[in-house]
Write a structure and sequence with these properties.
The protein has 101 residues and is mainly α. The chain has two helices and no strands.
Length: 101
């Protein structure tokens, strides 16, 4: 009798777990679409700024591209260091995904 009850509970648990899979997939797809839309928007704004800077300063386009690339690298590197520092404070030096030997 106990084996039948355990087996039925396992079935119910397994089926309940499977119900959440499509919802998780939808959430993942929605996040991916949001990230893609954000990336397109950032690229569009960057291209508009590049064109504006090139016209205002009457700088050749290759120099404007180089300057904006260096500015973006500097800003994103600063952001990356800040995020890493926060992660180290939260998880310690090992980090959540470090390989344990």
């Amino acid at each position: 009798m106990a084996a039948i009850v355990m087996r039925q509970n396992a079935k119910v648990t397994w089926l309940t777990g499977r119900v959440g899979v499509p919802a998780q997939a939808r959430g993942t797809v929605q996040r991916a679409m949001a990230y893609a839309a954000t990336a397109v928007l950032v690229c569009a704004v960057g291209a508009a700024l590049l064109q504006l800077v090139a016209e205002i300063l009457s700088v050749p386009a290759p120099i404007a591209v180089t300057a904006l690339t260096l500015i973006a690298v500097r800003a994103l590197n600063s952001l990356r260091r800040h995020i890493r520092t926060q992660a180290r404070h939260r998880y310690g030096a090992e980090g959540p995904h470090s390989v344990q030997h």
